[in-house]
Structures
1.
Amino acid sequence: MRRVSLIGLVSVFVLVTLLVGWELNQRSVRSAGSSDADTIPPLYLRSRIALPGVYGRMDHYGLDTKRDVLMVSALGNNTVEVISNWKRVHTITGLEHPQGTLYVQGVDRIVVSSQSGKVRFYDAESYKLLKTLDFGDDADTDNLRYDPAAKRIYVGFGEDQTGAIGVIDPSTMEHLKDFKLGSHTESFQLEKNGPRIFANLPDQESFGVIDRKTGAVTKWKIPGIAKNHSLALDEAGHRLFTAELAPPGGLTVVDTESGRVVAHLPCVMGVDDVWFDAPRKRIYAPGSGFIDVFQQVDPDHYNAIAHVPVGAGAGSTSLLLPESRTTEGTLYMSWPNMLPQGGSEVLLFYVGD
């Protein structure tokens, strides 16, 4: 009798597990989305983008809108992985646990934040390092946002009393000023048609509300959000959405005019990025092995419409890209350390109507 190697059996088992998981994912998405088999589900898997050799936790995404290039902060791998046409085309190295990646139009630069407290600027065409800003030892520079009207970059950084949002000029690459918050902001969102920044401050069980014209900071106490790291904004509907990273999991909806909690729903745990799909009035909450989808009935009422299985180990970081004239709406989700040959994946889901 021919002996079968243990490695061979493990490889076959992993392959079968992935194929079965993919099929179960498709069946479950169809059943969760609608009882009609011909109806497009709210999310469906379109492609898997392999990142061989990339290990460890993966963090936030960015998008080079000029070149249609996706950028993934591979925190545990100390790299930023650059993806074009559903394949990796470049790797930015020499980073210390990168957390946020941002493309700045106009100056054509990529900005990367790291746990070490560094914010680095790269030429978006050549990936040449242009400048490094140092926010201090272990300053934990994290989420990045860009205000194209004011031409300013905002970065969350600091711990405990040093927690703040810093303001950077992307043209001069200079650190201009800070808005002090008193603890680390795990996520924040900018109003497009107003002056406010909403910052999630789980250590204070609060949202910080910053007027970026006057610098005034107020805080709304939101009991029960000590485990919430994510934040999304429905600016037209005056609502904020935040979901829990740690058990038991839950989605909280807050009125941006009053700070009042208007809804709380069960949700998958492990959510680090939550997204509001304005055209469809939906919320996507990718978490630990699943993506929960909620439909907004009106600003105060929401229904859970899908609990999409992805697979054990699928990560909490993600990116929602709205549809355009040439592309469908897409949701990218990280799956660290799952390739049989070693490495990670990025899953690409299309958003259905």
2.
Amino acid sequence: MNAPHSRSLTIIGAGLAGALLATLLARKGWRVDVYEKRGDPRLKGYAGGRSINLALAERGRHALRQADADEAVMKQAVMMRGRMVHPRDGQPQLQRYGRDDSEVIWSVHRGDLNITLLDLAERAGASLHFHRQLDAVDFQDRIATFVDDRDGGRHPVEFASLVGADGAGSSLRAAMRLRADLGERTDFLDHSYKELEIPPAADGGFQIEPNALHIWPRGHYMCIALPNDEKTFTVTLFLPNHGDPGFDTVHTPAQARALFERDFPDAVPLIPRLEEDWHRNPVGQLATLYLDRWHIDERAVLLGDAAHAMVPFHGQGMNCAFEDCVALAEQLERHEDRAEAFAAFERERQPDARAIQEMALENYVEMRDKVDDEAFLLQRELERALQERHPGRFVPHYTMVTFMRIPYRVALERSILQRELLVAATRGLDRLDQVDWAKVDAEVLRRLAPLEAETR
């Protein structure tokens, strides 16, 4: 059996985080085994979770660069310059995420990304084991038992340390919970989601503007669409669980069509298989997972969604998980004692995970309620003006979260101050030229220190 201090690690889950961590560690000479309950998607096709589109930002790209994966991934990515807002009445309007095309996010297909990362992990020397569902963990004797879903066969495996990269429904977390109190709690959002698809146009191209994340905001609910490299869009409808409209009142494909014709009429011609998609695709739940404890001494640690699942409204779940991978790999290199490495990783990342979980919940309200609100749009104008007037001191919230790698907790703290400043400076105003510039400049200088480009 491998001693706890040896450079050997067993990863549960061969999804995005598990494959990336395996690559990072194998490239540093670690012996890495990855166990995945599903079959190999490179042989049987991708059969992952419900959401097939992900937003890749600078944090995630930085992690991919550490694994020399960025170039391969970016070949499949579609640039998104900003939010294309589709109001009930009037023409769609693009709200840029950043100042120019150097500040964009990228739509990536989960399955394609997973396959790319698995190939890289294997080439780096990691051993991948598919059809292996974690069933039980003997932490005393360090034996993990896996079950093959094809024949029910049981496979005991000795381990030095386990890493749970197996998502929000983590089997390793369940096993750890039997051993120790993790302080686990799950807050379910009172909204859920359903996915549909916009197919390519008749000429094989995109039906609508490809370089944007499309949003149909409707107050307490919304629809979004993200582009795919095969010229489709993945459409996601977010509705309350109860109400009108809500998933308890919109059951049937016919009711779904009636909802779209009433509230998203410009989207209806884009989704020719609306009823079929509605019938076929399940309703997905939305929740935030909080844990007080991510590890058990040197024997097990959790990362990504297994430790801190979040709602998808800031597009940071994958990016945060990738940051976790880099941080854990660095702590394992820094500390010979595995327990110290896991504890240091938890101390470093837990405050940032809590911060982005909070910001993701806030961003849902912004996307569904505010993107077509006049007061919000004026605040956005002022935000951009102050960014030009005070570079390095007034940095927009979205820039800090998406285009920089400062800790999420720092971005949250500064965003709260900046939001207070924007609201106060625009209260009762209709136009930017009505702003009291002397007063607002003084407030920026008084309340916001220059932002250090904090990176790992």
3.
Amino acid sequence: MKNITDRHEYILKKLKENNKVSITDLCEEMNVSNVTIRKDLKVLEDKNLLFRIKGGASMNNPYAIDRPILVKETINSDEKNRIAKAAVEMIEDNDSILIGSGTTAYAVARHLSPNHPLTVITPALKVALELCNKPNIEVLQLGGLIRSNSSSVAGQYAIRILDDVSCGILFLGVDGIDLEFGITISNLTEATLNQKMLQTSQKVVVLADSTKFGRRGLGKVCNLEDVDYIITDQGASKKYITTLEEAGIKVVVV
């Protein structure tokens, strides 16, 4: 297949069918060189028709964007609520939990209504405000500079408080889950705080709707093996779920 128009049409057709294409497969299927395919992908990316990724191309942007929390709240809100309800059911008799920042984590706070005393540690102002007047809940608000995009604190002040506490479960909202790179968010400062929150917790539960799979944020939080549970929605790829389960992670699909 030598005609450039035919090649481009073929690549876009494959992308529509599979969401991703690999350079190796395209070379074999169209009997052209690696260099030719790379040039084709660059042309199509320049036209905003695909995103180049390692070894190929994707229909979806593989890099997470640091969107304002008010914008994030409107994205996949039904899925986030189902994920949050499943997360609340996991708390059981724990006397202390950590809830991170992000809209899915905030949904956990909205659905949280324990019938036993519970301490909630959080860097997120919206989480703290949601919980501070609920019965049976004591809130430990981490301190530090507030990021306007997330309405959450980050930095050394928050990390110092975590030096002196321990909790049962961390509910962690993320921006990306990549099978090779691990768990990421879109801000480096918050990534550092999240790393500390992992060290403070006995069990790590990642909250991620299906759009987070196959994406990478700027800041790496942890490797996949550091996660105990991932709660996601039914749009998550079966391939991803199988690979995660083989890595020892319990995946809950809601």
